[in-house]
Amino acid sequence: LVIDPCGTNRVCVLESDQFDDEQTDVVAVDAVDGGEIWRARAPSAERLLGVGNWAVTATSLTYEPTVLAFDEAGRSAVESTGLPVRLNDANLLVLTTAGGYEEYLRAIGVAIDNGEPFEMGQLPEGFDQTQCSWNERFLVCPDRSGTEIWRFARD
Hints:
globular, 4-stranded antiparallel beta sheet
């Protein structure tokens, strides 16, 4: 069972048919009174991440995962490829490869108040997105010669 908070008094759950992962849904449930709030199709989703009132899903991380973000009403808000990262209740970061080439990693930010993705830039060659760490202000990734740190938020 994959479950994560996705708003005040709300949890989201990945629900799938054990024989057909294309039939996976993300379901928002009222954590106080029970009952389904909304349901949306999230084919092959394996990961679930609550970001404020949003639910973000991702397929397998072994290749280039599909990232789907749903707003507080269950409407599709963002579709991308990459590794979704929750920065805080208001911001999502997606680490993705540029043009499908793993050596060209780029970062895309999404502020959930407007849902518009914005390009944060391409990271230098040689970074492995699965080895990166982050918090609300910094992204840290190892490369062949050491570690790089990027600041992407102001104090």
